[in-house]
Every structure is written in structure tokens, then in C-alpha cells.
Amino acid sequence: MDDASSDSASLAPDGHPALIIGAGEQDVHTRREHISINDIAKATELMLTIVDKATRYKVDSSGVIVPRAVAVAAPPPRSGSSPPE
In sequence order, what E strands does the chain have? Predict the structure, then answer.
């Protein structure tokens, strides 16, 4: 269809990125449009995986994307210094 679109078309002009995921629909935009339960299940798993991966990150105070849980390692000892007692 020449005039087919998605909601993402209204987000793009404002600079909001969007991802369109096809879920295996058959006979799209017709009276016979349908999808199998198996395709719905696979699409659901894919979307949950994307959300899970995406939410493992955050934007820090300087605007950099970082993992949510960052282990901060102790700095290595300086040369010539004695280890703490």
C-alpha cells in the first residue's frame, strides 16, 4: 500500500528514533490479515530481550551511556609506596 505507515512516522520529525518489528503477519492490510500464535510468541520473546538489554544501561550525569551497575576497581598501588597495614 502506498499510504501505509506506522506510528513511528509521527516520531521521526521530532528526532525520536523508532524501531519497527514485524511479527510475521500474513495477508497484511486485507480482510484476511492474520498471524500465528507461534509468531506472536517469538516476537514477544524478541521484544522482551530488546527491552531487557536496553534497560541494563543508563545515562550518567555527563550524558554518557553506561551500564547500570559499574564496579569501581581500586586504583593500583603507586610505585615505591608501601602496602597499607
Answer: 57-59, 65-67
